[in-house]
């Protein structure tokens, strides 16, 4: 069995007939199952796991036994219901007591009633399956709305002309931030900025549109584990603006 502990795996990764990596794992490494989950150091191990044999595309699974989880509005602290995105919080025997020798960090990591704040945005459905969306600090603040870059990236990656993508917020005096996409085109395809903007606009609500525009690049900066380095994208944006 292979466990994946990132955000929910895309549908294509979970379907063995469409993904070379999965076929390789099945046939050459004799790994029959890819099991999705979510965990963090502060909670010891995985605290959300998909049961063996269960599949829910995009979901990390359900909360493990003996642990409690809620989704909390980052601004009001109010617990949110199914389908609403907020910060993941945990309670239970697997949660740390605190950071050794760092009382301030410990205080900032818990609510007043003892819930561990993960800094991760997620939601759950009516059947208690959880879906990790993005990091709280990565949110794009457009007017009174919060836009998760990972949501827009997933939509853009469904376009067959797009090989890779990274989304950041562009500072704007009136709106706060505007979503902008760095896009890597698949080789040999024609793709314009307008096509990309329209592709997203047809699939999202108004506040999530790419009002900041599109910049075509040769590669998206990532760390060794494959996470997008948004700080590097922001540097690229500054460099791009200076050349205009």
Automatic annotation (TrEMBL):
Source species, domain of life: Eukaryota
Domain AMP-dependent synthetase/ligase: 27-100
Localisation: Peroxisome
Cofactor: Mg(2+)
InterPro entries: AMP-bd_C (IPR025110), AMP-bd_C_sf (IPR045851), AMP-dep_synth/lig_dom (IPR000873)
Entry's Gene Ontology cellular component terms: peroxisome
Keywords: ATP-binding, Magnesium, Metal-binding, Nucleotide-binding, Peroxisome
Domain AMP-binding enzyme C-terminal intervals: 151-227
Single GO MF annotation: CoA-ligase activity
Any Pfam family hit: AMP-binding
Recorded family membership: Belongs to the ATP-dependent AMP-binding enzyme family.
Name the UniProt record assigns to this protein: AMP-binding domain containing protein
Organism of origin: Asbolus verrucosus (Desert ironclad beetle)
Taxonomy of the source species: Eukaryota, Metazoa, Ecdysozoa, Arthropoda, Hexapoda
């Amino acid at each position: 069995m292979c466990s994946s502990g990132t955000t929910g795996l895309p549908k294509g990764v979970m379907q063995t007939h469409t993904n070379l990596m999965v076929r390789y794992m099945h046939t050459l490494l004799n790994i029959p199952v890819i099991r999705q989950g979510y965990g963090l150091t502060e909670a010891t191990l995985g605290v959300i796991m998909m049961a063996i044999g269960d599949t829910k595309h995009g979901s990390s699974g359900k909360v493990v036994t003996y642990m409690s989880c809620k989704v909390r509005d980052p601004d009001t602290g109010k617990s949110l219901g199914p389908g609403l995105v907020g910060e993941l919080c945990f309670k239970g025997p697997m949660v740390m007591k605190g950071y050794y020798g760092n009382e301030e960090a410990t205080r900032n990591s818990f609510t007043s009633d003892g819930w561990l704040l993960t800094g991760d945005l997620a939601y759950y459905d009516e059947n208690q399956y959880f879906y990790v969306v993005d990091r709280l600090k990565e949110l794009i603040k457009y007017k009174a709305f919060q836009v998760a870059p990972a949501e827009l990236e997933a939509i853009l990656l469904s376009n067959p002309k797009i090989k890779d993508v990274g989304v950041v917020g562009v500072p704007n005096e009136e709106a706060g931030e505007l979503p902008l996409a760095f896009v890597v085109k698949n080789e040999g395809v024609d793709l314009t900025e307008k096509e990309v903007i329209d592709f997203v606009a047809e699939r999202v609500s108004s506040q999530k549109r790419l009002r900041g525009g599109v910049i075509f690049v040769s590669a998206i900066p990532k760390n060794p584990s494959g996470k997008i380095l948004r700080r590097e994208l922001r540097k690229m944006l500054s460099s791009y603006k200076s050349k205009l």
